[in-house]
Amino acid sequence: MTTLRYLTAGESHGPALTVIIEGIVAGLPITAQQINEQLARRQKGYGRGGRMAIEKDQATILAGIRGGKSLGSPISLQIQNRDWTNWQEIMSPQEDAKVEERQVTCPRPGHADLPGAIKYGHRDMRNILERSSARETAARVAAGAVARRLLAEAGIHIYSHVLSIGGVASTTEQDLYNQATAGKIQWEDLQVQADASPVHCSDKEAEKSMIAIIDQAKAQGDSLGGIIEIAAVGLPVGLGSHVHDNRRLDSEIAGAMMSIQAIKAVEIGAGFESARLPGSAIHDPIYYHEEKGYYRRSNRAGGIEGGISNGEPLIVRIAMKPIPTLYQPLDTVDITNGQPVKASVERSDTCAVPAAAIVAEAQLAIVLAQALLKSTGGDRLEQILERVQQMHCQAKNF
């Protein structure tokens, strides 16, 4: 069984972010440009803060790829932090670092500041927020770019779009929901529309209202969250397993989505709606056709049954809370003296929902690539693709 795993390192204002990816098979075509395209998508989005005006994320391939193809050895990628030049004396790993400057002693409600400081014993909460920052997701997107290249070779593609921001929902949200659960969305067309939108939304009318509410929140020193839908199309039947909790595909996906900063809820397929309707209105009847094999005319299961992919599009929705750094900060306590104060303010976004959609795509790509390699094994790309084809044939001719 081939195992795919990755590890990121780096602080928000450190010199660089690094990711090492282990388990990618040999022969996978991958270039820095393909990775950088995904990094650029993450940096877009109406409502982003000043940090994105500084950074221009580019991945440097340090190991594991030669001549545009993976070697089968660990892949190492690095993304430089341009803002490091403004922080190198404060964030230096050397003993003479000016650690007494820019200290954070007033924790932000909703952030990792206080619980992290208590857990690790840091009186300066910069030692927590530098790593808990969503800046780390740039490294995850780089890893996800490699994973999605593997999926694309296997005919699996990932899409996303924003359904709502703050109190503004897409006017087509219910229609999109109905189409998704009916298995009728044209995902490629929807993705083109979403990528062309500054808020990553396919609904042009809702886009205007979303931009307006982001402007309003920014003027008030506030922040906004939203709901994102992510889909994977082209999956073979049989990824994941029912036999153990940590091998269930839906369990792996939920964990990956909840690992993204500020994500507070996940649903697959009909999700919470499943709790409100009877079984006859939720479960997807099964049909058979000689040419396409077993299929469903609806997709309320969201492409997973019993922890196993069933061949239908995989549909995931996530809820992102508003970013906890506010320019009109909330009440908190200064941990140096216990006195009530306003929370610390770090440079931040008003709304990062469009960017979170790209991070969610990357996380889904990683989980699905992991599941694909577990099911197919192999050390070379051609072995994986041959076994994926076998999985499709097996499901069709079962």
UniProtKB/TrEMBL annotation:
Top EC class of this enzyme: lyase
Keywords assigned by UniProt, alphabetized: Amino-acid biosynthesis, Aromatic amino acid biosynthesis, FAD, Flavoprotein, FMN, Lyase, NADP
Swiss-Prot/TrEMBL catalytic activity: 5-O-(1-carboxyvinyl)-3-phosphoshikimate = chorismate + phosphate
InterPro entries for the chain: Chorismate_synth, Chorismate_synth_AroC_sf, Chorismate_synthase_CS
Keyword field contains Zinc: no
GO BP: any one term: chorismate biosynthetic process
Gene3D superfamilies to which the protein is assigned, alphabetical: Chorismate synthase AroC
Cofactor: FMNH2
One family name in Pfam for this protein: Chorismate_synt
Sample GO molecular function, one term: FMN binding
Binding site for NADP(+): 42, 48
Involved pathway(s): Metabolic intermediate biosynthesis; chorismate biosynthesis; chorismate from D-erythrose 4-phosphate and phosphoenolpyruvate: step 7/7
Gene Ontology CC terms: cytosol
Residues involved in FMN binding: 131-133, 261-262, 306, 321-325, 347
Entry EC no(s): 4.2.3.5
Co-factor: note: Reduced FMN (FMNH(2)).
PANTHER family: CHORISMATE SYNTHASE
Quaternary structure note: Homotetramer.
General function of this protein: This reaction introduces a second double bond into the aromatic ring system.
HAMAP family: Chorismate_synth
Similarity section: Belongs to the chorismate synthase family.
Name of this protein: Chorismate synthase
Organism listed in the record: Heliorestis convoluta
